[in-house]
Amino acid sequence: MYTLASILPYIHTKRQLVHNAEQPIYDLAYDSRKIRNAGYSLFFALKNVRDGHTFIPDAYQKGVRAFVVSHDDIDTSLYPDASFFWVDDVLSALQELARYHRKKFKKPVIGITGSNGKTIVKEWLAQLLQEDKKVYQSPKSYNSQLGVALSLWNLSDDYDCAIIEAGISLPGEMDHLQAMICPDIGIMTNIGVAHADGFASKTLKITEKLKLFKHTKNVIFPSRYGFEEYLPAETSMFTFGEGDMDEVKVLRIEERRDGCSSIQVSYRQEIVTFTVPFVDKASIENVLICLTTLLFLDYPLDTILHKLGRLRPLEMRLQLKKGRNNCSIIDDTYSNDLASLQIALDFLDQQQQHKKKTLILSDMDGLNDHLEAKLLSILRQQNLNRIIMVGKSLSRLQDKLGTILVFFDSTEELMRNLGNMVFENESILIKGSRRFHLEDVSKLLVAKSHETVLEINLSALEHNLQVYRSMLPLNVKLMVMVKAFSYGSGSYEVANLLQFNKVDYLTVAFADEGVELRQHGIDLPIMVLSPDEQVFESLLTSNLEPEIYSFRILRALIDFLRIRKQKAFPVHIKIDTGMHRLGFLPDEMDELTTLLSAAPEIKVKTVFSHLVASGNKQHDDFTIQQISLFSSSADKLEEMLGYRVFRHIANTSGIVNWPSAYMDMVRLGIGLYGVDMDGKLTLEQVSELKTTITQIKKLPAGATVGYDRKGLLSRPSRIATVKIGYADGYSRRFGGGVGEMSINGQRARTVGSICMDMCMLDVTDIAAQELDEVVVFPDLTEAAQRIGTIPYELLVNIAARVKRVYFYG
Known about the structure:
Mean pLDDT: 90
Radius of gyration: 29 Å
Number of helices: 24
Strand content: 15-25%
Shape: globular
Number of domains: 5
Distance between the termini: 30 Å
Strand order of the largest sheet: 9-10-8-11-12-13-14-15-16
CATH topology of the largest domain: TIM Barrel
Number of strands: 40
CATH architecture of the largest domain: Alpha-Beta Barrel
Low-confidence stretches: 485-489
Helix content: 25-40%
Largest sheet: 9 strands, mixed
């Protein structure tokens, strides 16, 4: 256990104000939204997209009484019983503390880096080792400057070994990670194209990544990448490959018809053949890294092959799925340790669509008294209505938690009893170690649906939000568009994340969308675009704020509010400065202000307009004219009303191209979802539409495919039928070879017409099999261009019947 006094020497303070030197510290906090053990937390006020110092009041209010800061002008009188530690760099102080904590761990630490496969190798290794060792692995993809420090903090002597992942994207970053991790054994996965942008050359990228191992005696890697020439001469290298000098020589890899691969290797004159359930090169290489590592650790070859036989693809992502009986299922069933449990519980806490929350939790490997105390502390801080525990070790918690507890000795027993349990209108987190196979429980609770799915990466969405937010001055508010089912990505699921990230406003297209958000726990201000008179009651009862764009709607709303004796109802006034779609024209401002000034029922919250061509330099003069026209109209409105009204005109492209148009607030739309219409930002793809191959047929030349025999084959062909059609939102315009989908990384063109529920692809030149995954839009912008439209249309047309699967990480 640490105290403030014991931590002080390792964070290199310039000065300090200590109220309780013996205050115990169990947790390191940096996000005031995720504080759980406030009285025993040390808060690090990090500066990144948002300055952590601005959240000190929130952290203090939640009970934190110890802060590491860099600002000199903090008024400590506002925090009378808190301790403050001033440092030059808050992140460096956190890393130094993590470095000290790591040095106290005297058992083997395996460090993993590379361009791809780091997380998979880490998780597979942990899975292979945990049958006979207690393994600590950094949670999910916690491989950054901050993530590694937080990962190491949870390391304790309860574990037999640790596996820590390190990721970099710029030169110089690995030095800090190496100093913290100090790996005893190193694993380098590969040096693909991932994260190449930050490096001038491939050589520089290799050199930087291998800095993790500059003091590591033993490094394991595939020999085909030639890493040995970049490592110190004294490094002991343990490699696999096709060369005679490799410790593990790969003799043969054969793809089988059942979707598996047969691999033959030679090790110390012994030749063995084994089978793995993968055919892609990346997974096979990752398996061979794990095999080589276990051989280095002196595991017998037959034991290793037995372990490898149980490897399965890992769904290494926390997924949010629609469940039966109006439930939300959070599936995180590939690992279970305290660090990843806390992450999953934080995500559960973000879900506001249901008041009732249930945790299904499996045993943790090596649960001793120390870890049990930590587990109890974590669970007691959660607002859980019910906990279902699986595994005999957890039964001893029966009398130590006040929450409703249900215990089962095994997953099989739980599944036999699921039918007798009620799951309705609740959020359910399923969290368990791989060996408990709680994914089978998840399958029973998830609603049955169409096999085509739209995967939505909430981590990418959060990244894109921060990209745009980083461009804004602190005093500029952010309104986010969640209209049209959040551009096809789902409504309350996205809104939950935005609310958690403290955006200022949401905007929906219809009142019904706003009502649904309110019903699912979203309490942010919500603007409703272009409402009509029929929804006034919904606006009032659900606290929704309408856009007012015409005198007809304004007069009707005033009459409605007078009848309801409602005063100062918030509205948003739309000015038409050039779009000529909806809104008041500038020459109507006198009439508008006269009407508003005589209506105490109305309070103008904001005035706004819409830029027509903010991403097109050809029309910059028109954009300048729009901004000027809007400013003068807003000035007149404010003058006549006699009070301050917030202004906004900048849309997504306006944020990128027109900082002069930021005003009081900006509106973020399609850019949040990863579509960069300007090509200037490092956005991440948020959604990916996927389906599967239902059947493959071999057809002769001259055969026809689909309705009206439009798909005429010019050669003997293999034709795959996939489960997506125009009823799912895949436009009929993609038929006849216009559309392309991706199967195992290769493009396949459509054949014939697009049907209602399916379509056909030519896979003659692709090693495709039935049930293979198909990516419908390999490149969204390119797909839109093929049919003469824009990415917006493709996204919003994805039908509601297509299941949305949300994942984080």
